[in-house]
Amino acid sequence: xxxxxxxxxxxxxxxxxxxxxxxxxxxxxxxxxxxxxxxxxxxxxxxxxxxxxxxxxxxxxxxxxxxxxxxxxxxxxxxxxxxxxxxxxxxxxxxxxxxxxxxxxxxxxxxxxxxxxxxxxxx
Length: 123
Prior knowledge:
This protein has 123 residues and is mainly β. The chain is 0% helix and 49% strand.
C-alpha cells in the first residue's frame, strides 16, 4: 500500500489547514504522526477504517478532527486554531488490519508511511 499526503503549508497562528492522505489499497487503520525539528516522531490522531473509531493526542483534542472517505481511500486531518508548536512535518501512516483503540497511537503498529508534508505555523 502506498500513501500520498498533501495539504501542508504556511499559516499564521489561529489559522486552519486540512491535510489529506490517499491510500492505494485497503487498510484497517490510518493515522497521522508529526515530527518537529530535533524531536522524535509523535502521534497526532488515528481513525479505524471500518467503524470510524478515533484516538487523539491530548494537545490537539478539540482543535483537530480526523475523518475518512471510504470510497476514496482518503483520510483528512482538519487542523484548526493552529499554534506555532504545531509546526512539524506531518506523516500519514496505515496498517492493513484494525487495532484496538488503546493501541492506535503506537507508532510500531504501522506498516505503511507517506512521504510527509510540512506544516509551518508562524506566530
